[in-house]
Specification:
17% strand; 6 helices; single chain; alpha/beta; four-stranded mixed sheet
Length: 167
């Protein structure tokens, strides 16, 4: 897996941003039985930056905690067979030869605020947001109650496997 990180706000956390993001992303892909070497981009921004993106891409004029921009259109969540055939050309980076899974955008302000609000570490909140976004990049959604339950279970399983708990 190739992971690109851009920290446009020079956010500082008491953990290794790239290290945690890679561990969580790798575990999500492993739990989804992804057979491919993927390329993922992560942008760390602030309230203003994510509000601008949320407005531009989703028509919602407010800040949020995380945005996900999947590069793959799935028939079924986690079914990576769509990465073969003609679509593979469209989703592959010509320079690296890797399949581009998508982009994650995390709001550094919300990581801090939500960690305090939920009474856990900033690392746990950051890892949760990465896991949540990675599942979106794998085709999952939470618009319906049953979909939300599936995502919640998968997120929690990944974080438990990695020992990133609410402690």
């Amino acid at each position: 897996m190739t992971f690109y990180v851009e920290n446009e706000t020079d956010a500082k956390f008491p953990f290794d941003i790239e290290g945690v993001a890679k561990r969580v992303s790798e575990e999500v892909l492993k739990s989804e039985n992804c057979p491919y070497d993927m390329q993922i981009s992560l942008l760390i921004t602030n309230d203003e930056g994510i509000k601008e993106m949320n407005s531009e891409f989703r028509g919602i004029d407010s800040a949020t905690d995380v945005l996900s921009f999947p590069n793959i259109s799935y028939d079924e969540p986690g079914d990576f067979s769509v990465c073969e055939g003609e679509q593979k050309i469209d989703i592959t980076d010509p320079e690296s030869g890797l399949i581009v899974l998508g982009d994650i955008v995390i709001n550094e302000n919300r990581v801090r605020e939500q960690a305090e609000e939920y009474g856990h570490s900033q690392e746990r909140e950051f890892a949760f947001l990465v896991a949540h976004s990675m599942l979106h990049l794998c085709g999952y959604d939470h618009m319906e109650e049953d979909e939300a339950k599936v995502m919640e279970q998968k997120q929690e399983a990944v974080l438990q496997t990695l020992g990133i708990t609410r402690d």
